[in-house]
Amino acid sequence: MKRLLLAAFCLSGSLFAETESSRPNFIFFISDDISQEDHGCYGHPVIKTPEIDRLATTGMRFDRAYLTISSCSPTRCSIITGRYPHNTGAPELHSKLPDDQTRFPELLREAGYYTALSGKNHMFGRQDRAFDKITGGGEPGGSSDWVQIVRDRPKDQPFFFWFAAYDAHRGWKVSDHAPEYDRSEVVVPPYNFDGPETRKDLALYYHEVSRFDHFVGRVRAELERQGILDNTFLVVASDNGRPFPRAKSRLYDSGIKTPWVVHYPKIIKEGAVTQSFVSVIDLSATCLELAGVGIPESIQGQSFLPILEDPQATVREVVFAEQNWHVYRNQSRLVRWDDFAYIRNYFPKQMNLCSESDTTYPAGKELWQAHAEGRTNDNHWQTFSNPYPEEELYDLRKDPEQLTNIAGEASSAEALQQARKLLAEWTEETGDTLPENPTPSRHGPPRIVDGKVLGWEKGPGGNPHAEFPGAARKATTINHPGPLRP
């Protein structure tokens, strides 16, 4: 009898090991404040990202991948729940993810996965039911323990790792893990001011982008050393755009478009590029489907597995995003479809700012001083307009930098009506609302007096959260995904 039991135990253990080894592993790399275009594989002529480029060459690069919000903590809470920010209960900067919101890694953990989060958290405390292990990641960019986590993992379980760098969030830290760039070689976006301080600022930002790439490469090499690279589903993304004026927190591509490089040889047999739309909330449904775990009703994202199998496939033809309080009071909404981007601004009688576009940091300070001296041009209007247009419409075929608002042009009437209809449907179906008591700005914008830029106007300071968007309709209980096609 003992021999029969032992034989049965060994057999069941063998079958378990075979089953576990066939289940995919997952690593989600998320950088901090890096725009999609700031990678070699997305065409940047200066920034060196050889490791991410390598993954893109043998995997799949998504050119139309969008965040649901361009703001640190709300982005992460949106991704981990597979829900729009106003549906998570954490739609504003520094708002904590409610305990009753399902995190998709917890479902993987319940299904036998070992889960770990390393680096920037910005969602909940040092312990959470979604992860077996949570660490700070270590210097210089919250990524120094990533390889060790891969090495020390339980070898009898598949794993899900959320590797979140602090790179390239301000303030800058130079280390020997990445090249340093000369200010003469940087590419200044047309909506920023091309001056020495901005160039120096961008050069330091480039360094941190390359450092994130370095640590992605170290993890890839460790997976290859262990012989598990081919069975590990890798995704490289960012939480919002670069921390410069008219990028981070804004709904232009510079702020809301994320890198999305997927490497998984079991499905992606050769390098590919797709123009199919994908939203970051789609990560949840995709991972759960690949792991064979049921997708709960709470997840609004859609699995993009069909696109991995065929780059021409589509799972959605429209994406939505939102802008909420991020130091300054705000509420704007984005509809992105076909070649158009539509933005609805609900607080038009103010400047549309965040800390990265005021005088907090060198690039913003130099831009504001140039504006005070009359040295800016028409490309800078989106930082300084007051009032701000209620509606913005951009044709990205003709205007990829989104500098010319065509919402008022007769030739754009059909596209404008389509955008309004899509936004109205999404607003209704997902329970979005405009707060009657919105969170006030932490302080006012900078002041210009006699050609000089002075300090901010006073405000309440701190994180004065008031009524959240969606609260009036209890959006945290609504699971409708909104329109997927125009």
Please specify the SSE layout and strand pairing.
Blueprint: H1 2-22, E1 25-31, H2 50-58, E2 60-66, H3 72-81, H4 85-88, H5 104-110, E3 114-119, E4 133-135, H6 146-152, E5 159-164, H7 196-226, E6 232-238, H8 253-256, E7 261-263, E8 272-279, H9 282-291, H10 305-309, E9 318-323, E10 332-337, E11 340-345, H11 362-372, H12 381-384, E12 391-395, H13 413-430, E13 446-449, E14 452-456
Parallel strand pairs: 1-5, 1-6, 2-8, 3-4, 3-5
Antiparallel strand pairs: 2-7, 6-7, 9-10, 10-11, 11-12, 13-14
Helix pairs in contact: 5-9, 6-7, 7-11
Describe the structure.
The protein has two domains: 21-320, Alkaline Phosphatase, subunit A, CATH 3.40.720.10; 322-477, no CATH class. It is 29% helix and 16% strand. The protein has helices at residues 2-22, 50-58, 72-81, 85-88, 104-110, 146-152, 196-226, 253-256, 282-291, 305-309, 362-372, 381-384, 413-430, and strands at 25-31, 60-66, 114-119, 133-135, 159-164, 232-238, 261-263, 272-279, 318-323, 332-337, 340-345, 391-395, 446-449, 452-456. It has 486 residues and is α/β, with parallel strands linked by helices. The N and C termini lie far apart (66 Å). The protein contains 13 helices and 14 strands. The chain has an eight-stranded mixed β-sheet with strand order 4-3-5-1-6-7-2-8, with helices on both faces. It has a four-stranded antiparallel β-sheet with strand order 9-10-11-12, covered by helices on one side. Strands 13-14 form a two-stranded antiparallel ribbon. A hairpin with a 2-residue loop joins β13 (446-449) and β14 (452-456). α5 runs parallel beside α9 and α7 packs antiparallel against α11. Residues 1-20 have low confidence and may be disordered.
